[in-house]
Write a structure and sequence with these properties.
Length: 510
């Protein structure tokens, strides 16, 4: 019995051990199943969250597209504060504006990838109780299953027309596109076509400056142009040209006291810093990036991709082989040698009148020029404007352009009779060169020279220079952008259409 009892006890212990082992396996299996289920749910939630994020991005991209189309489709007065965003949900229902709370951009179809998104907008206070036209907050929330993700971005739209700059440059000659000691007030946009990362697109020295305001502008020009626009910056309402420096290819050289922007000074009426700089190849000179003062720092590369190209008179246009042929076919064409000689030597005492009934150019002998439509100087005709004795001012009225097959030289004050460019605006174009070669002259207009623009002396220019190469010499000429120009270009001016680009100035997920 004792031996049998011992065997029973051993069998009971073995059974208990087996039972315990089975129980441990069962508990482990249960824990594994529970853990697996938790991990599966976590993976599913992560997947749903990721898909919700991508859906939010999709809603954001759609909103940015519609915001850009809102400007493209409104040819008169585009705005994000006019109660209409690209006719969404329709052309009648008001949409905003509100610069305090977000409001819904009501898409009728907001489904995407088995989820959905909602888009909300909030305008930016203009500092005077209203909303800015061209800046806005966009909030996009994506939903997939039980997951939601929200992205908020701040965007600004730019008219990147060459005529919405102080200087627009293309390919250059011998590398440098803007050279010398110059005071530029307004945006500068350089493509730098063909330049290498070690070539200079801009090489400024002395007291050269790219500025964001009209401080120091001659009163002769200031009295004839619209007031400088204003913006809210660091809690102040300041005059600002919205100046941006863009260089697609090539270095920006700053040496000596040359600067791009200035350090912010509170308490005055001007915005000193540039609104942004977008330079792919960086900075050179003995000061380089240390002399750049910009709201977005100096590390941002060119941001417009291949959207912008340099406009050429040799480009095809409509049914014409070249844009220059289009201009000639729609112009008053001056081909008579005597008339061409007269237009090559215009002075304040010149007296002539040429017209075809649609296009007109005339001088009255008392320094007053009238321009309307397109005037084309054929047979390599050149345009020259110079002083007569001590009289070195021509005052023009009307809206028109002069196209010279040859070069252009302006050595005289060329001023509007009324407000530039909303009342009077003159455009001058040539496939060759435009030269300003007289000390202390004030000039107003839109100037295009495909080859080169050169300012040898102290010329003050209100308007825009568009050329492949701009040589500003060493005598501190000045160029003052007039923001109203691109909306008031004379008919026929090359690239007179608007080009809109949206940039994202901040991005965050909330």
């Amino acid at each position: 019995m004792g031996r049998q009892s011992q065997k029973v006890k051993q069998k009971g212990l073995a059974f208990a051990l087996v039972l315990a082992f089975v129980l441990i396996l069962a508990l482990a299996a249960t824990a594994f199943i529970a853990l697996s289920g938790t991990e599966i749910r976590m993976v599913r939630r992560q997947s749903d969250s990721t898909r919700a994020f991508y859906i939010a991005e999709g809603g954001l991209e759609r909103a940015i597209y519609d915001l850009r189309q809102d400007f493209i489709n409104d040819l008169t007065d585009p705005s994000w504060a006019d109660e209409n965003i690209n006719n969404i949900p329709d052309a009648v229902t008001p949409v905003g504006p509100d610069n305090i709370d977000f409001y819904l951009l009501s898409y009728t179809d907001n489904s995407l990838d088995d989820g959905s998104y909602t888009v909300e907008l909030r305008n930016v206070d203009d500092g005077a109780g209203g909303s800015l036209d061209d800046e806005i907050w966009v909030k996009s929330t994506g939903t997939y299953g039980d997951s939601t993700r929200t992205i908020v971005v701040f965007v600004k739209i730019y008219n990147i027309s060459p005529w919405n700059t102080a200087i627009f440059g293309g390919a250059g000659t011998g590398g440098v596109l803007i050279n010398g000691n110059v005071d530029i007030r307004g945006s500068v946009h350089i493509l730098g076509i063909g330049l290498t990362p070690t070539d200079y697109a801009i090489n400024m020295s002395g007291t050269a400056n790219i500025g964001n305001n009209y401080k120091g502008i001659p009163s002769t020009l200031l009295s004839r142009i619209p007031a400088c626009p204003t913006t809210t910056f660091n809690g102040e309402t300041l005059e600002s040209l919205g100046a941006v420096l863009r260089v697609k290819q090539g270095l920006v050289g700053l040496s000596g006291s040359a600067i791009a922007g200035q350090a912010d000074i509170s308490g005055n009426d001007y915005k000193e810093t540039l609104d942004g700089v977008y330079v792919t190849d960086g900075y050179g000179g003995n000061k380089g990036a240390s002399n750049v003062y910009s709201d977005n720092g100096t590390a941002n590369a060119y941001d417009l991709g291949d959207v912008v190209t340099f406009p050429s008179l040799g480009d095809p246009y409509q049914d014409y082989d070249t844009y220059q042929e289009y201009l000639k076919d729609n112009a008053l064409v001056i081909s008579d040698p005597a008339k061409l000689d007269e237009l090559d030597d215009i002075t304040p005492t010149s007296n002539f009148s040429y017209t075809d009934g649609t296009n007109t150019i005339s001088m009255d002998g008392s320094g007053n020029l009238t321009i309307s439509g397109i005037v084309y100087l054929d047979n390599d005709g050149t345009l020259g404007m110079g002083k007569h004795g001590s009289d070195k001012t021509i005052t023009y009225s009307g809206s028109g352009i002069i196209v010279a097959e040859g070069d252009v030289e302006i050595d005289i004050n060329l001023l509007t009779a009324n407000t530039f460019p909303t009342s009077d605006v003159l455009g001058i174009m040539t496939p060759g060169e435009i030269e300003f070669d007289e000390a202390n002259i004030d000039v107003m207009g839109a100037f295009y020279a495909e080859t080169k623009i050169e300012a040898e002396k102290q010329t003050d220019i209100a308007g825009t220079l568009v050329s492949n190469y701009v040589d500003m010499g060493s005598q501190v000429p000045s160029v003052y952008q007039v923001p109203a120009l691109y909306d008031n270009l004379p008919t026929g001016m090359i690239n007179l259409w608007n080009i809109w680009a949206i940039t994202t100035r901040s991005w965050q997920e909330i």
